[in-house]
Design a protein that fits this description.
Layout (H helix, E strand, L loop, with lengths): L3 E4 L2 E4 L11 H4 L13 E2 L1 H14 L5 H10 L2 E2 L5 E3 L1 E2 L3 E2 L2 E4 L2 E4 H7 L9 H5 L2 E5 L3 E5 L6 H10 L3 H4 L1 H8 L1 H13 L6
Parallel strand pairs: 2-11
Antiparallel strand pairs: 1-2, 3-5, 4-5, 6-7, 8-9, 10-11
């Protein structure tokens, strides 16, 4: 088992302190939004209502196929504590649109255009960190081959995964919690490879 650091009842996999990561969309093509497996992004219970309210703005940004899928089957599956976005053909998240061959999120597009105040599901915002539940939150690195360009880019740019997902971590746990994590990260600096 990997070493875990505990900050205010949140467990953090020790390797996150030294892991390098910075997305390189031109190389990965947004693979995390279209991974095979049939289940999309994990959703918090509170995000179901939030996304439902934003659908009238987001739907026009999607293809007809995705709009019909949402109308017929909804945008999520699962139950309380285990919701996830639905997928098309067991691959694309139902909120994916493509721009220049890159899978992107229509929810985030609406946010970036100032049309809604919800950026995207927190699990997407945190990626490649995943939150596992085991008597509390455990933050772990989710390693997939498609993200190797992001690891190389992080090494080149000297950006740690904690720094890369700072906004998402602050969104989930608050700025004070992130500052405590950053202290541990600074005690274990990420060395340039």
């Amino acid at each position: 088992m990997r070493e875990l650091l505990i900050i205010d009842d949140i467990a953090v996999e020790g390797s996150l302190l030294t892991r390098k990561f910075a997305c390189d969309l031109l190389k990965c093509k947004g693979a995390c939004c279209s991974l095979p497996g049939g289940r999309g992004a994990p959703l918090l219970d509170s995000e179901i209502v939030e996304i439902q309210e934003k659908l009238p703005v987001v739907l026009p940004m999607l293809s007809e196929e995705k709009r019909k899928a949402i109308e017929q089957s909804g945008f999520y599956d699962g139950g309380s504590g285990d919701f996830a976005t639905t997928c098309i053909d067991d691959k694309d998240c139902v909120f994916v649109y493509r721009e220049n061959g890159i899978a992107k999120c229509a929810i985030e597009r609406a946010f970036n255009e100032g049309k809604i105040d919800f950026r995207k599901p927190v699990s997407c915002h945190l990626y490649p960190i995943r939150v596992n539940k085991f008597g509390g939150d455990i933050l772990r690195y989710h390693e997939i081959a498609e993200c190797m360009p992001a690891v190389k880019n992080g090494e080149t740019e000297n950006i740690g995964v904690i720094e890369f997902v700072k906004t998402a971590l602050e969104r989930l746990y608050g700025e004070e919690w992130y500052n405590k994590l950053e202290i541990y990260t600074n005690l274990n600096p990420v060395e340039k490879v």
